Amino acid sequence: MITLKGENIYLRALEPEDLDFIHTIENDESIWEISNTQTPYSRFLIKQYLEHAHKDIFEVKQLRLVISSYNDVALGMIDLFDFDFKNRRAGVGILVKESTNRLKGYGREALKLLINYSFTHLDLHQLYCNISEENEASITLFLNQGFKEIGLKKDWNYVNGSYKNEYLYQLINK
């Protein structure tokens, strides 16, 4: 049985009530680097995004899920992006919003659930992610879930006046 429920968290679809949560995340300049965001998002734009969030991954090439605790606290988000059905692959992005909720296993559990969903329900062949070489927590998270480093993109992202390298990781469904 396909499930998006783990021991401590579950993954759920976006809801209109997530407007403030998403607005806070999308406008947090400290994480713009990982999302390649350049400008703030208005509540209006996020509301429009939420109105279309129900669309199928095959149509919009993206799936964004909320990482939620069982007492219905939104902890973060996990995404499939650049969904490519023909080649059966997608990129993965994950964020646990509050630093106090990081390193508690929520990201690991969410990633494990998403990998299982991607390989069993979406029938993907591979997942990939891009991680700044400075983001040791994310590197460890993805390596522990079986992702392999397949390359280093030198001077890939221009952040605060300097270039940063970015690793490419890949997980192939055997």
Count of discrete alpha- or pi-helical segments spanning 4 or more residues: 6
Helix content: 25-40%
Mean pLDDT: 89
State the CATH topology: Aminopeptidase
Task: Record the SSE blueprint.
Blueprint: E1 9-13, H1 19-26, H2 32-35, H3 43-51, H4 57-60, E2 63-69, E3 74-84, E4 89-96, H5 106-120, E5 126-132, H6 136-144, E6 148-159, E7 162-172
Parallel strand pairs: 4-5
Antiparallel strand pairs: 1-2, 2-3, 3-4, 5-7, 6-7
What does the model show?
With 174 residues, the protein is α+β, with helices and mostly antiparallel strands. It has one domain (9-172): Aminopeptidase, CATH 3.40.630.30. 28% of the residues lie in helices and 35% in strands. The chain has 6 helices and 7 strands; from the N terminus they run E-H-H-H-H-E-E-E-H-E-H-E-E. It has a 7-stranded mixed β-sheet. A hairpin with a 4-residue loop joins strand 3 (74-84) and strand 4. Helix 1 (19-26) packs across helix 3. The longest helix has 15 residues, at 106-120. The radius of gyration is 16 Å and the shape is globular. This is Diamine N-acetyltransferase. InterPro entries: Acyl_CoA_acyltransferase, GNAT_dom. Residues 9-174 form the N-acetyltransferase domain. Keywords: Transferase. GO terms for molecular function: acyltransferase activity, transferring groups other than amino-acyl groups.
